[in-house]
């Protein structure tokens, strides 16, 4: 059960822990350690690391009595999650272990002392729970190290103090923001619940806070802190494209271009059906001039999840970065694709020929070609008609209006009404009085349930201009015009 | 008080009656008759006529004993309101008066008998209250006229019966419709109350019923019935342009073109500030080819109630019926008019040059001229930009976008945002990737409270096409996109 669950939710730390604890209960600590080891790369969670260290220490010390392996494990742990607000217990355990290490000579003693001081100095700059208690403990330790050299101890403490103070100040805000974050049962996708929305926002606020560098850390420390925060957030919300995109952008902003790409690629691995992340990746590649890579993204999309929108953006990309001919080839491919074709593709291809290539005739041909398949798509028909009307070629526009309205089989009554209304509007702005009246009458014949062509409401519509009406709003109410 | 009130509401029958009754109370019947005589042309109301007849009969018979004047008055009364559903009392009084007339010879007797029969025959075809009782009375009268010629009497009755039956059938529906009509205290304008709306509808239903000719009357009788119904309705709702327009159209439909025009002119006299009725009249004139008359309507409007909409339609009319030059002259006049000018006039003049005259350069010049005065009218600016964009001349369009956005003094922040959004949409469909990103960034700089240019929401908008989104609606909700 855990294997299957963790395949779906590899970042669910609590389930890795529960899985490992099953083996612990069976007294098979080695298996437990194996399980935890698999989970650790996915989950920057303090609890998971602490559990791992407990079992690893006990197994290792039992077999070899060599503490160097354990120390290395502790180092890996504090590297991974030593920035966590709850990492104080981990740090305490690390320090306790260091203190407990037997030393056999002066050299080893100095080495251990340096290790301890480094650990203290690192953790005392982390805004975490009970960091003030650790400070007291550290002061005492530093001062009692060499009673003959109290002055130096005080100097060291004094040098560290401002950085520690900054951490304590940052802790207050960090705690508030961290407390606002909820850890859901499963790291699932957004399902529309308000709770989830608030949780995402809470995470984003925490990330913003860390990125604002409240402790004024050097850039490398800041980078680590932000990276840790993103990673932890992504372990809880791995199916939220927002965070992947934000993390990618952050990499880009600090100049880590390959990190930017890798983050988006990891996001796509987690949420393979997210068009947003695919488009984001393709766009990044294209902006950096990596046309081949961008093209690969689009090719993959066309292969694995073809859709009209995918083909539309692939066509646009090809036109921008290759040639008109390349775009047309993709349009051809789209037309043959069962899931990748719709009126949208025809419409965009046509408009692109007109806008980018300034070729109105090709655009018209594409619209006409599309009309053969999509004369029942009122949105497509309206786009075509608007396109024609923008040419100021009234007679051609009228021909298409009439053609579309004459085709009895295509549009249903209510959709056809949209075309009629557009046609009447067209004549209001282009036609003469008798053309307008004739058209109003034709429409009224087909839709007798609407205002009659002889009604005052119809007159009011005819003489309206934009927000100017030939009557007051109260009169419009009486006439039944919105 | 009554004089002033009746000047405002000349069709308020109940106030004419109350006014006259004041004189009656003072025993000044002649004055009362004068007052009633003034009211009668405005009010086709049975009560008013009956009151008039009562006083007129008593005064006339007192002075001259000549009943011919009274009979003439009765004839005028039944001509005016003899179709009313409540006219039964009037008819009864008429018949009673006829019966009471002394005759001195056989010739006079025959004449009186014919008059009586004509009155009976007319009123028995009116769907009015108690018409069945009048029928019984008539049958008796006809049969007792000449006991020796009962056969002929029965023949006359039999000939009349189908028409009378039709009236009785129509009466049921007519009563229902007439009962639905409320007579308000004052014949005022529509003020937005539901009651008023229902009352208008009730009148329109009654009119429709009469126009449907339920009694299958000859066309002249039908015309009289419908005209009476319109007149009565207009005495109760004289400030409702709907009814004037409907009455005008009805005249037109039965071929009474001068009646159509006269009705609209009367309506304009009643509601001088109704643009709808003015436009309706101008349109009728123009449709009939009476260009001079149509022009007069527009000239009067420009003189007495100039407004942008008036000038817009005057310009359109001039272009249709005179020349481009005439339209331009009116545009010039509009520009100098304080109340008649607004961005709408510039916009319509420009579009008309483009659509009708196919002169894009003149259109551009007009838009540019308008921009000097109306750069703070976002709707105008957007119309201009849409016009430019439709030319497919991207660089010129961009120049105007930039010019408008650079003008700090004109648009307020929220209006300028509409221009920014339109500009970004424009680049989405025309620009290359870096132009799009740059523009998004510029907008985000000015409107930091909106989605950032680096946000996933912005990416989603960028990759949207019509109703196709690169994410589900639930994700859009999370991204805060409508």
Automatic annotation (TrEMBL), chains A, B:
GO molecular function, one term: mRNA binding
Domain Suppressor of forked stretches: 1-474
Organism: Guillardia theta (strain CCMP2712) (Cryptophyte)
Compartments in which it is found: Nucleus
Cellular component GO terms held in the UniProt record: nucleus
Highest taxon above the source species: Eukaryota
GO BP term, example: mRNA 3'-end processing
PANTHER family in alphabetical order: CLEAVAGE STIMULATION FACTOR SUBUNIT 3, RNA CLEAVAGE STIMULATION FACTOR
Protein's recorded name: Suppressor of forked domain-containing protein
Chief location category: nucleus
Keyword entries, A-Z: Nucleus, Repeat
């Amino acid at each position: 059960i855990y294997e299957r669950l963790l395949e779906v939710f590899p970042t669910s730390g609590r389930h890795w822990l529960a899985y490992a604890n099953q083996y612990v209960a069976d007294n098979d600590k080695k298996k437990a350690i194996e399980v935890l080891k698999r989970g650790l790369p996915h989950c920057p969670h303090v609890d998971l690391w602490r559990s791992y260290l407990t079992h690893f220490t006990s197994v290792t010390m039992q077999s070899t009595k060599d503490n160097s392996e354990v120390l290395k494990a502790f180092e890996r742990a504090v590297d991974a999650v030593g920035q966590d607000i709850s990492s104080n217990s981990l740090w305490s355990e690390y320090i306790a272990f260091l203190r407990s290490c037997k030393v056999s000579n002066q050299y080893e003693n100095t080495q251990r002392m340096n290790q301890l001081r480094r650990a203290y100095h690192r953790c005392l700059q982390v805004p975490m729970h009970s960091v003030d208690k650790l400070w007291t403990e550290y002061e005492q330790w530093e001062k009692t190290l060499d009673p003959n050299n109290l002055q130096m101890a005080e100097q060291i403490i004094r040098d560290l103090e401002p950085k520690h103070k900054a951490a304590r100040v940052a802790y207050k805000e960090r705690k508030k923001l961290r407390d606002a974050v909820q850890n859901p049962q499963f790291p699932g996708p957004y399902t529309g619940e308000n709770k989830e929305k608030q949780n995402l926002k809470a995470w984003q606020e925490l990330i913003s806070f860390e990125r604002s560098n409240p402790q004024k850390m050097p850039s490398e420390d800041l980078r680590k802190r932000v990276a840790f925060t993103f990673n932890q957030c992504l372990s809880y919300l791995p199916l939220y494209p927002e965070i992947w995109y934000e993390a990618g952008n952050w990499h880009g902003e600090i100049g880590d271009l390959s990190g930017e790409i890798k983050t988006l690629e990891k996001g796509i691995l987690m949420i393979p059906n997210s068009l947003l992340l695919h488009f984001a990746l393709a766009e990044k590649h294209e902006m950096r001039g990596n046309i081949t890579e961008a093209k690969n993204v689009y090719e993959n999309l066309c292969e694995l999840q073809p859709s009209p929108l995918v083909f539309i953006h692939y066509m646009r990309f090809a036109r921008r970065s290759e040639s008109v001919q390349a775009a047309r080839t993709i349009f051809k491919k789209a037309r043959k694709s069962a899931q990748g074709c719709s009126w949208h593709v025809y419409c965009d291809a046509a408009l692109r020929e007109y806008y980018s290539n300034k070729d109105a005739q090709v655009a018209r041909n594409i619209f006409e070609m599309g009309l053969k398949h999509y004369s029942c798509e009122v949105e497509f028909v309206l786009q075509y008609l608007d396109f024609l009307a923008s040419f100021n070629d009234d007679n051609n526009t009228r021909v298409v209006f009439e053609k579309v309205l004459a085709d009895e089989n295509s549009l249903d009554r209510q959709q056809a009404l949209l075309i009629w209304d557009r046609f009447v509007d067209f004549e209001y702005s282009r036609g003469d009085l008798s053309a307008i009246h004739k058209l109003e009458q034709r429409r009224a014949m087909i839709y007798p349930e609407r205002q009659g062509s002889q009604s005052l409401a119809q007159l009011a519509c005819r003489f309206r201009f934009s927000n100017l009406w030939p009557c007051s709003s109260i009169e419009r109410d009486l006439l039944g015009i919105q």
